[in-house]
């Protein structure tokens, strides 16, 4: 398994791409509301990336994906395709997943949004899933192992009576959208690849309210929970530093000290 160790110049480019991806999520927040279609959100993000940032939406055309972002609503785990027919309604939860390419390097991140006031159950799932991601990030440092990341995520999810999706995972990222290593969101501490300074990858736990089992819809992209219960996901692009980690897709609303 060959993993690319980024040079300081590459890391600088990834910081810019990561900031751009975070900025798209910051921009789109005010537009995520009842009555808006996921297709409209996609077009707003595409225009911001292309016209304002002068960058490239990585998802558009990637292996045939037809839109610029992924919008995964309620029981959709990941890779939901934006549509003019899919109108958001009060009580929905939606994950918006954005990847920006700038000067050949990728920034990949996602965030959960509430449409109106969420149910207590939905709010709790979204919050615990975000905590899972933060705990995974806290485990990142030179000398740690990939299994350490997966273990803390799995333990927190299962302690809260949720399940971890196993068919989809985080991934190495840089000049290539998806590269080694694969970052599982479950695992055994002290196992797996050793982390070294200069590695970059995503941590993006997908946590289900019901069973962990998933189903791929006939469109070849949309992944849903088999039992149609809610699923949530959060994602950041992470750099392994000399002393810990740096979140390359940090948003202004987040407190860096919480998980560094």
> What is the first-to-last residue Cα distance?
27 Å
The share of residues in extended strands comes to: 15-25%
Largest sheet: 4 strands, antiparallel
What is the radius of gyration?
17 Å
For this entry, give a set of tags.
260 residues; 3-stranded antiparallel β-sheet; 4-stranded antiparallel β-sheet; 27% helix; 15 strands; alpha+beta
Structure description:
The chain is built from four helices and 15 strands. It is of the alpha+beta class. Strands 1, 2, 4 and 5 form a four-stranded antiparallel beta sheet that branches. Helix 1 packs across helix 2 (38-52) and helix 3 (120-138) packs antiparallel against helix 4 (146-159). The chain starts with 7 loop residues before the first helix and ends in a 13-residue tail after the last strand.
Quick gist of this model?
The chain is an alpha+beta fold.
Describe the secondary-structure layout.
Blueprint lengths: L7 H21 L9 H15 L3 E2 L12 E4 L2 E3 L14 E10 L2 E10 L5 H19 L7 H14 L3 E2 L5 E3 L6 E5 L16 E4 L2 E3 L5 E3 L6 E3 L5 E3 L2 E5 L4 E3 L13
Antiparallel strand pairs: 1-4, 2-4, 3-12, 4-5, 6-10, 7-8, 9-14, 10-13, 11-12, 14-15
Helix pairs in contact: 1-2, 3-4
């Amino acid at each position: 398994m060959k993993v690319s160790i980024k040079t300081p110049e590459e890391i600088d480019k990834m910081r810019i791409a990561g900031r751009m991806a975070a900025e798209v999520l910051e921009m789109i927040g005010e537009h995520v509301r009842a009555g808006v279609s996921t297709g409209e959100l996609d077009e707003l993000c595409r225009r911001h990336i292309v016209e304002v940032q002068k960058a490239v939406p990585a998802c558009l055309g990637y292996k045939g994906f037809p839109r610029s972002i992924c919008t995964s609503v309620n029981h959709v785990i990941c890779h939901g395709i934006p549509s003019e027919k899919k109108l958001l309604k009060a009580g929905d939860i939606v994950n918006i997943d954005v990847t920006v390419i700038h000067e050949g390097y990728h920034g990949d991140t996602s965030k959960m949004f509430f449409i109106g006031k969420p149910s207590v159950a939905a709010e709790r799932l979204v919050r615990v899933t975000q905590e899972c991601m933060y705990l995974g990030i806290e485990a990142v440092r030179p000398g740690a192992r990939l299994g350490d990341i997966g273990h803390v995520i799995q333990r927190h999810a299962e302690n809260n009576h949720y399940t971890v999706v196993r068919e989809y995972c985080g991934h190495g990222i840089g000049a290539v959208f998806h590269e080694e290593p694969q970052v599982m969101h479950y695992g055994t501490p002290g196992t797996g690849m050793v982390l070294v300074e200069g590695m970059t990858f995503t941590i993006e736990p997908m946590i289900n309210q019901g069973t962990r089992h998933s189903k791929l819809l006939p469109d070849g992209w949309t992944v849903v929970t088999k039992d149609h219960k809610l699923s949530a996901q959060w994602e950041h692009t992470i750099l392994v530093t000399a002393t810990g980690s740096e979140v390359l897709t940090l948003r202004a609303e987040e407190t860096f000290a919480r998980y560094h």
